[in-house]
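Entry for nicotinamide-adenine-dinucleotide complex. Fields follow.
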Amino acid sequence: MTVHPFAPSPSTFEVHNPATGELVGVYPLHRGDEVDVAVYAATEAASWWDQLGFAQRARRLDAWRGEIARGRAALAHVIHTEMGKPISDANLEIAMALEHLTWATRNAEKVLGRRQMGSSLLTLDHSASLEYRPFGVVGVIGPWNYPVFTPLSSVSFALAAGNAVVFKPSEYTPGVGVWLAEAFTRAVPEHPVLQVVTGDGATGEALCRSGVGKIGFTGSTATAKKVMAACAENLTPVLMECGGKDALIVDADADVDAAADAAVWGALSNAGQTCLGIERVYVHTRVYEQFLQALLTAARPVRAGDDEAEIGPITMPKQVEVIRGHISEALALGARALLGGRDSIEGQFVQPTILTDVPDHAAAITEETFGPTLTLTRVRDIDEAIEKVNATDYGLGATVFSRHHGPAIAQRIRAGGVSINAFVAHALVPTLPLGGVGASGFGRVHGADGLKEFTYAKAVTRRRLPSPLALTTFRRTERVDAIVDTLIGILHGRSRR
Ligand code: NAD
């Protein structure tokens, strides 16, 4: 058990292992004043960190990466005990997070550094340059389901861009956040460039109101709205990585076994608690029966349990009721359980459940379930599949299995990313941005967009020639006005349909 003495605090909160109920940690409930102290310290650290420049920062971020990699067994253990996923999955999560940290470190200067830009006929007398500057302090608010991969998608990129970070991990996984910050302090002992504040929603709200330069939020769509409201008071910009209701399309020409394998992993891994998790599957009628058999064969051996099982418990007790509600409502509306069903829930463990004949208006189709469940729907053609996939407010990701039509289908799906013939690959390729549209949020982590997300664009010009045409002066002559008038005609007046 960890009692973490981060700062004096009037109150604390407990963290329990969701599989066993065992107490695994006690952490301070940081309130407004303590959050403000952390942000104040971060402001001074930010200016040191910024002035180090890209190369010196990269050296230190590499040292942090080494600390995480060498400590991965301990970190995986904290993840496992706090939120329940199997150790091997926790290891995989750490590996993916390190890939993105490496990319951000290696590419920050190329993406954000100062570069010369072109000018135009009317501005030929100026040289132009562009660079992307850090905000100063960035607040990151994270969820518990991927407590390393998800917050680091913001933290790593914000740091590489030259910001200091105050990170508020989920109240279910504070130990993971504290572990990451302690590893950072070992690598960068000079200033508090990455700090952690622990607590619940009120701590997160205090961070939103603390005057940080930007908030990077990852969590549910409902909380995102509260975060935006709090940030609106100071016009604090926000990055919103919210929930999803991702679907898989299986086309008539798909590799059916590979699609079934992806469906099972995409829906059941992490006990279904994945923002990009597959919650709906739409299968072309020509391969429906074949897919159904392959799906059941692949899903039957997957068991929820502690330690040795393929999937762990549901982390949040209240989510169990959401899952139960979605399954019960679907069955009451005429759906059939091909696997699992009402009896699949025991305590905080939910056994894999596959539902079919679920009506389009059921919550199991329209709302984020966040459990190891899947709805299976037969479609007459791909047009119907795409119509159903897009008939949701969410737009995070999607998966398509098709030997010949993948790119064409992907183009018609309204989502921030689509993986063809694999599950979730677009979230793992370091050069690609990750994020959603609609109720899934806005802004991007990962890749060049993810670096720019934690900066503001700064444009600078420098006069390099005496002005041939003095435009922006009250001393402008009638001759200059006549030249401008002629130029407008030449440059723009000939454009027609
Ligand atoms: P949540 O919205 O309950 O909490 C997220 C974070 O917000 C936590 O740290 C919480 O303490 C904090 N918070 C709560 N109320 C707040 C408030 N009023 N002001 C500021 N902060 C507040 O989400 P969760 O249950 O931790 O995570 C699961 C959700 O996250 C799912 O909806 C999932 O889809 C989503 N998610 C999205 C992505 C993505 O990349 N889009 C990744 C992972 C998880």
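NOTE: Residues 5-9 have pLDDT under 50 and may be disordered.
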